[in-house]
Design brief:
alpha+beta; 28% strand; 107 residues; globular; 1 helix
């Protein structure tokens, strides 16, 4: 499924749903409902935060200010709580096929 730029909010929610569904499929039914995804908007990136059993960690970052290297909606692996790994994009939230291998534990 491909989203247009004006459907960005739906696209990032679809990405979050994908991560929660992946968690639920690997949890063997033991801890369903203990994982969620939150978004923290910054000037260049939206931080995707994994929340599991009360602890929060940076899962990935979504580019919202395109530059020569990354396009709008590109998904970048988290290098730390505050910054993305800028070596290459792991997919794009506007194209669901591009991130089908993203897992709840990281990109």
């Amino acid at each position: 499924m491909k989203f247009e730029n004006h459907d960005f909010d739906h696209a990032i929610q679809h990405f979050a749903d994908h991560l929660v569904k992946d968690y639920d499929s690997t949890s063997s039914g033991v801890s369903i409902g203990k994982y969620s995804v939150e978004f923290v908007k910054g000037s260049k990136f939206i931080k995707v935060v994994s929340v599991s059993w009360g602890s929060r960690s940076a899962h990935s970052f979504i580019c919202v200010k395109p530059n020569g290297e990354f396009k709008f909606g590109d998904i970048l692996k988290a290098a730390s709580w505050a910054s993305p790994a800028k070596n290459f994009a792991r997919g794009n939230v506007l194209d669901t096929d591009s991130y089908k291998n993203a897992r709840w534990a990281g990109c």
